[in-house]
Amino acid sequence: MMSTMLIGAVNVYLFKEYFHNTAALSIIGIIQTVTVFIAIPLVKPLVNKFGKKETTAIGMLIAGSVYMLLYLLPNLSTTQFIAISAVGMFGYAFFNTMIWAFVTDVIDYHEFLTGLREDGTVYSFYSFARKVGQAIAGGIGGFAITAIGYDAARAVQTQGTLNGLYQLATIVPAVIYLLIFFILVFLYPLTKQHMKQLSIDLAEQRKTRK
């Protein structure tokens, strides 16, 4: 949530000041929506074959790698920037599409660990975490843009500010998306195989409780 909202906030200034093309903002918004619709029919077969964690992790690796590539290519045209970032948006779309399904898996895992089925508590905690992410992103976005020297009173921003805008729009999401990739791979335990076994173990546990 922090990364998504930060990108949205920074993109307003990026396309206005760096690319001098505010019309591209609406285009990138449309592309972001289109990538989700392209990803949706692919989710089920990929999850069936590889698993939720595995599919989502690869999506985040794609997203993080694409934004890192954008960071390393600062002299792109607006069209080139949008075309490359669309690939990153496509990778992120898998995470965005499946995140709520992750919550149901966590609920099952929590029940297995504690013997308690607490759907409301888990969903509430997740919803609260999203709201915290939104709140932090709102503050960080304004602070970061100010920190790089952006001055709304200037007709033309300094080159340092323009470079800062580009870096905020690329390296920050790259780091966050790659961090999520590593969290999924090394910390999140619910692999496809684990979920299959968890389903069996839960069924046995529920029989025992009866």
From TrEMBL:
<dbReference type="GO" id="GO:0015293">
    <property type="term" value="F:symporter activity"/>
</dbReference>
<dbReference type="InterPro" id="IPR039672">
    <property type="entry name" value="MFS_2"/>
</dbReference>
<dbReference type="GO" id="GO:0005886">
    <property type="term" value="C:plasma membrane"/>
</dbReference>
<feature type="transmembrane region" description="Helical">
    <location>
        <begin position="23"/>
        <end position="43"/>
    </location>
</feature>
<feature type="domain" description="Major facilitator superfamily (MFS) profile">
    <location>
        <begin position="1"/>
        <end position="210"/>
    </location>
</feature>
<protein>
    <submittedName>
        <fullName>MFS transporter</fullName>
    </submittedName>
</protein>
<keyword id="KW-1133">Transmembrane helix</keyword>
<keyword id="KW-0813">Transport</keyword>
<dbReference type="InterPro" id="IPR036259">
    <property type="entry name" value="MFS_trans_sf"/>
</dbReference>
<feature type="transmembrane region" description="Helical">
    <location>
        <begin position="55"/>
        <end position="74"/>
    </location>
</feature>
<dbReference type="GO" id="GO:0008643">
    <property type="term" value="P:carbohydrate transport"/>
</dbReference>
<keyword id="KW-0812">Transmembrane</keyword>
<feature type="transmembrane region" description="Helical">
    <location>
        <begin position="165"/>
        <end position="188"/>
    </location>
</feature>
<dbReference type="InterPro" id="IPR020846">
    <property type="entry name" value="MFS_dom"/>
</dbReference>
<dbReference type="Pfam" id="PF13347">
    <property type="entry name" value="MFS_2"/>
</dbReference>
<keyword id="KW-0472">Membrane</keyword>
<feature type="transmembrane region" description="Helical">
    <location>
        <begin position="80"/>
        <end position="103"/>
    </location>
</feature>
